[in-house]
Amino acid sequence: LLEHCRKHKYLAAPGEVFALLVSSLLENLLDYRTIMHDESKENRMSCTVNVLNFYKEKKREDIYIRYLYKLRDLHTDCENFTEAAYTLLLHAELLQWSERPCAPHLLQRDSYYVYSQLELKEKLYQEIIAFFDRGKMWEKAIQLSKELADMYENKIFDYEGLGNLLKKRATFYENIMKAMRPQPEYFAVGYYGQGFPSFLRGKDPSPPKFWIP
Fold first, then answer.
1. Diameter of the chain by CA atoms?
2. Is residue 201 within 8 Å of residue 194, measured between CB atoms?
3. Interval 136-174: pLDDT, tens
């Protein structure tokens, strides 16, 4: 297809863009289909990140969000609760604290029946804070709880919700002072050689955009 487009008088430029786009999409989707049978959940996470990054770059929020939740599920299955929280936060960042109706493609959650972006973002924040708590990332949970508390106090006037949130925040501060936490270590890993799957091979070992163990 690329060869034929390049020979065409009018389709040379747009045809090349289309052929390269389809080629990239098929490469990602075929890798994803293959790796879903792999026992390594870490490989499945990496491949899922590649697919959702493709859809994010192409501004297909509906499919991007769908793969965000596939990644979230992989993290929760591995009890990577901090990583699951950061994954959900990417969905929340697409929403505004607004009464504007929430477009159907932004939902992607059968359990959430909401009308506005504010309602959905609130529910996501509650879930994200709970994940950060389970992952012992209480500093990040406090940061998000402050943002949510401001909404409760100054915009939607949910004082009961505010009170419950402040109680949780007090617990987070106490945990920071008293609970034992292992010191995390992070490594940049590169995969070079034909023995690695194509979605990993030769990738830049810079810090990832998504939290993957």
1. 71
2. yes
3. 999 999 999 999 999 999 999 999 999 999 999 999 999
Q: Ramachandran region of residue 79, left (φ > 0), alpha (ψ -120 to 50) or beta?
A: left
Give DSSP secondary structure letters for the chain. -HHHHHHSTTTHHHHHHHHHHHHHHHHHHHHHHHHTT-S-HHHHHHHHHHHHHHHHHTT-HHHHHHHHHHHHHHHHHTT-HHHHHHHHHHHHTT--SS-SBPPGGGT--TT---SBHHHHHHHHHHHHHHHHHHTT-HHHHHHHHHHHHHHHHHTS--HHHHHHHHHHHHHHHHHHHHS--PPP--------STTS-TTTTT---SPPSS---
Distances from the Cα of 143 to the Cα of 83, 88, 121, 162, angstroms: 16, 15, 15, 15
Closest CA to 173 of 145, 152, 131: 145
pLDDT digits (tens, 9 = 90+) for 110-142: 556 788 999 999 999 999 999 999 999 999 999
Highest mean pLDDT among 31-40, 104-113, 202-211: 31-40
Dihedral of the alpha carbons of 50, 55, 58, 61, in degrees to the nearest 10: -150
